[in-house]
């Protein structure tokens, strides 16, 4: 069981909480404590909007252990509107085509379970095509 | 000035699924072959390049394991792990040990054993080479990540999908005559085009097959060798290593293999050459997109142009065996097979064969200087060595 | 009688209202005709058109998080100001371990917060709402969140399989003067009536078939609605909208008619034909659909029903703030319009009905 390593990251995983560098304003996700832009310490929490666009994407047909139940699934690089790129699954695609540039938004979903069905459920961010507003 | 570090002995096993051989047995085969090739030199230090033994063979502590199994109990021995670049990093460790004078004879042994575990466990182990907390947790595999790079490359540079065909075609052509290669069958552009998709846009031929293997090189200093040595020698003219962000998404420009570029620059500076003076570039073609990005990083092509080096025109493709910059000369990762943390040592063995003039059907007639480059993941680590024929 | 009922009426000391609300419905839809095709050769009267089915990576926790985020967007308050996050469901992802802590963590409401999971079949969500009204109305909390959400399962081939859907809603309860709808009063009617249950470790629920109707659904909703209207001196005509627990299309239509409501009054909240019975989410997602289109001054009657059994009735008056706040999050119909049809085989996979080991 890997309880503590997932628990430790819950803020990042559930809600895309990263950091903002207090020195140069760079937005950082994942949080990394030393700002890659200016090299100074960055530990100020920052709530990302969760909006971004697809930078690249592909489909996994041969999943690693722990991900078999969801295969095939789409993984992507998402460029967040604040700047950083994150690796994440795309979800709720249905029959919607994906393209580079597709606007997406963050949702919190089940990523996997730790071990078998007796293990804890690991939740975290995924992205889905931005919800269309149809009703007026 | 210390005398030059030379490769005094080489050994390798075929790359394949060695169902009947264990990790230590494979290691010993390569080790013994290298010792024999050197005329019986005994290593004082053993650097084992390996990535997956703790996960796939439930075995860490390979230094003692293999030294013991080889009857070398007592020597210095340690595992060097740098993901897929473990072999290259072990070679560099052995080089530094000998070059510094700390030891007179050192061995770099790359060994990888995938086939002790089958199925999804292997894919899970592969994913540990990336960022476990932010990449692997999303179900990302190295292959899927290469597909992300390739799709972005096709998009940014508006390249035709078929542009990548040249790399596996060349690698497979070169693997035909390598007795240690996993695949010894040439493929055509049509076969490439019809291959099944692995992770779109990657198809089966864009992905090097993972398999078991071990390779060893025995390093010493030229002045320590007897005048009448049994074979020609290759010297290590430069060794360098560089790192980039572990996670691909943390890079400002994911399509730049920055660590690959840095390690080439550092190695060339050390060897006092420019990349164009290299006769062969043995690159890390674990995926055909990696080959393209490595060529661009080393400066052999402009960004977005690397794929053109594998296109046949009036002349054979630049990177084909008869071109001006051969790559994958004994099949590369694609046809020889990708033995994980052993691959970097295979590259050194294959470079030595070329520099010794022993590559037979695959001999590149003017091979005097070979650059070998071993990557981990999307060049999160890059180890580059420049090897030269010693007259 | 009026005096008695007045004493029974649940009215907080301080006036309370809905400060924010949010709905969620998953993307996938299984047509009822697919269930009929597989189990009855299509020879069945269909209780609904189609039901919503959660994706492989969804459960009550993930769905609650999205509804909660929508509610917070409309409430426009800091999550640190929430003093309760309560999730009502019959399909919590864990048998033991709160869904509510996960939701509270995800929306940033921890650690100064009450968190608990509520269970009362299909009225677990409204039960949490009543508690939140009390929590806010007593002055103990300025804001409290109540959620009703389900990913209910019916046994393959059972009548419930046609309708057991997925979805629900979240509400932020707070001071009436900040609200986009005011809670005028609530009333609850509860008896011990075993019309539907699921024993521990059982995957699918049991139900009393026709016993679920007259003595259960109709009895409890009628009693609760009539008592509330009587005590508040209102009649059906005073309400612009009404929404009742909706396990199928017929029951809410019939109970509405018995109480004197017209088809027009229940149309906006009657979502069961297109998303199925969302259990703890069923009545309240009807309410979110109503709030999406209601105008200030409109009155809404909502009556839930939970097997076992009980009903919570709410008299609600829409306030001015609805106009500027409702478009800060997706509307219920946005989720309903986002729709991918699946066949029974895909449904069986998505709902874990295919044995993998």
Secondary-structure topology with pairs:
The complex is a heterotrimer of chains A (136), B (391) and C (357).
Chain A (H helix, E strand, L loop, with lengths): L2 H6 L1 H6 L1 E4 L6 E2 L15 E4 L3 E10 L12 E8 L4 E6 L12 E11 L7 E9 L7
Antiparallel strand pairs in A: 1-2, 1-3, 4-5, 4-7, 5-6, 7-8
Chain B lengths: L4 E8 L10 H15 L7 E5 L3 H4 L5 H8 L6 E5 L5 H14 L6 E7 L7 H8 L14 H16 L8 H10 L13 H6 L2 E3 L2 E2 L9 E9 L11 E11 L14 H14 L8 E3 L5 H10 L34 H5 L6 H13 L13 E8 L4 E10 L1
Parallel strand pairs in B: 2-3, 2-4, 9-10
Antiparallel strand pairs in B: 1-7, 1-8, 4-7, 5-6, 8-11, 10-11
Helix pairs in contact in B: 1-3, 4-12
Chain C lengths: L1 H7 L7 E9 L3 E4 H9 L9 E4 L6 H16 L6 E7 L10 H8 L7 E5 L5 H14 L5 E9 L7 H5 L2 E10 L5 E13 L2 E2 L8 E2 L5 H19 L9 E4 L5 H9 L4 H5 L4 H4 L6 H10 L7 E5 L4 E11 L3 H4 L6 H6 L2 E2 L2 H7 L7
Parallel strand pairs in C: 2-14, 4-5, 4-6, 11-12
Antiparallel strand pairs in C: 1-7, 1-8, 2-3, 6-7, 8-13, 9-10, 12-13
Give a structural overview:
Chain A has 136 residues and is mainly beta. Chain A is 9% helix and 40% strand. Chain A has a single domain, classed as OB fold (Dihydrolipoamide Acetyltransferase, E2P) (Beta Barrel), CATH 2.40.50. In chain A, strands 6-5-4-7-8 form a five-stranded antiparallel beta sheet. In chain A, strand 7 and strand 8 form a beta hairpin. Chain B folds into two domains: 138 residues, Peroxisomal Thiolase, Chain A, domain 1 (3-Layer(aba) Sandwich); 223 residues, Thiolase/Chalcone synthase (Peroxisomal Thiolase, Chain A, domain 1). Chain B has twelve helices and eleven strands. In chain B, the strands form two sheets. A nine-stranded mixed beta sheet of chain B has the order 3-2-4-7-1-8-11-10-9, with helices on both faces. The longest helix of chain B has 16 residues. Chain B starts with a strand and ends with a strand. Chain C has 357 residues and is an alpha/beta fold. Chain C folds into two domains: 149 residues, Thiolase/Chalcone synthase (Peroxisomal Thiolase, Chain A, domain 1, 3-Layer(aba) Sandwich); 186 residues, Thiolase/Chalcone synthase (Peroxisomal Thiolase, Chain A, domain 1, 3-Layer(aba) Sandwich), CATH 3.40.47. Helix content of chain C is 34%, strand content 24%. In chain C, strands 5-4-6-7-1-8-13-12-11 form a nine-stranded mixed beta sheet, with helices on both faces. In chain C, strands 3-2-14 form a three-stranded mixed beta sheet. Classes of the chains: A mainly beta (136), B alpha/beta (391), C alpha/beta (357). Chains in contact: A-B, A-C. The interface between A and B is large, with 36 and 37 residues.
